[in-house]
Structures are given as C-alpha cells and as structure tokens.
Amino acid sequence: MFLYGWDKQAAKRRAPRISEKTLLMWTLMSGGLIALAAQRVLRHKTQKSVFQIIAALALTLHITVWIWLLNQ
Hints:
Blueprint: H1 2-13, H2 20-30, H3 33-42, H4 49-70
Helix pairs in contact: 1-3, 2-4, 3-4
C-alpha cells in the first residue's frame, strides 16, 4: 500500500514515479489484496484495468495456494 501511496503523491507533485512494472511486481508478490485495497482507498491506478486484473489474479493464485497448502 505504501508504494501506491508514494506513487500517487509523486504524480501529484510531478516528481519521479514508481514504474508500473515495479508496482505490478509488488502486487503479484503481496497477493493482490493489499493492492486492491490501495487502489480503492487511495484512488490510484483505478483507470488502468491491467492493475485490477493482475491484483485479482494474484489474489486468486494466493488463495488457491493457501488452500492447497492447508489441505496437505
């Protein structure tokens, strides 16, 4: 969530931004839930569908892996 907030503030100040590749990578690693929450709470990257798709896929993947691990 910190990265989304940092990038939004940088966009407002026209300062150097965090690359979309970096935001997407962290979205995948964090499981997507935090990214989806950050998008809603901070209203950042909500117009770019790739961010919602990647976050939803990451969330689905992480839930699937956790369910699989818990059933082993």
